[in-house]
Amino acid sequence: MNKKLFVSLLGFGLIVLLRAPVVRAQGFGDDEAVVKVPFQFVAGDTVLPAGVYRVTADSESPNVVWIASTDGKSVAVVDTECGGPLVTKAQPQLVFRKYGSTCFLTSINVPGDDGRLIPLTRADVAQQLAHMARARYDAAQAHRG
Predict the structure, then answer these.
(1) What are the distances in angstroms from CA 141 to CA 132, 134, 136, 144, 145?
(2) Helix then strand then coil, % of the chain, to nearest 5
């Protein structure tokens, strides 16, 4: 079951990766917002490495935001909620909340757009932290070999 889910998610990720460059930044002005994140983080259900990311709103679903690394190796699709008044800051900004040693993306603020919130539930955080701990354990076991 887990392998089937992984293969499905991998296939979806490839489709997302191929589509990401053509998605226009609806609600984000004419250009995509580009941000540098200097640490690993969780966006929705996806763990993303440190790097430079393009942030775009989906042209067909205004509450969906695509976060794709500029090297094309990582992508997350995140459901958002309108978070408040029009953002007037000059630079795009991602806001994170840290639980343990893991940073979770909690809002996206892009000039000219309403702030967007990424709701986190305790269950989401617990599930993601447990998944990451399990992955670290599996990697350690494989290394001991």
Answers:
(1) 14, 10, 9, 5, 6
(2) 30, 35, 30
How far apart are the C-alpha atoms of 78 and 89, rounded to whole Å? 22
Q: Which of 118, 113, 116 is nearest to 103 (CA)?
A: 118
SS3 136: helix
Question: β-strands 114-117, 81-86: how paired?
Answer: antiparallel
Angstrom CA distances, 10 to 15, 63, 95, stand at 9, 23, 27
- Residue ranges of domains in the chain: 2-144
- Backbone torsions φ then ψ of 108, nearest 5 degrees: -125, 125
Contact 56/72 with Cβ under 8 angstroms? no
* Total-model pTM: 0.66
Tell me the per-residue pLDDT of 34-71, one tens digit each, with 9 for 90 and over. Answer: 899 999 999 988 999 999 999 988 888 878 999 999 99
Q: Which amino acid is at 83?
A: G
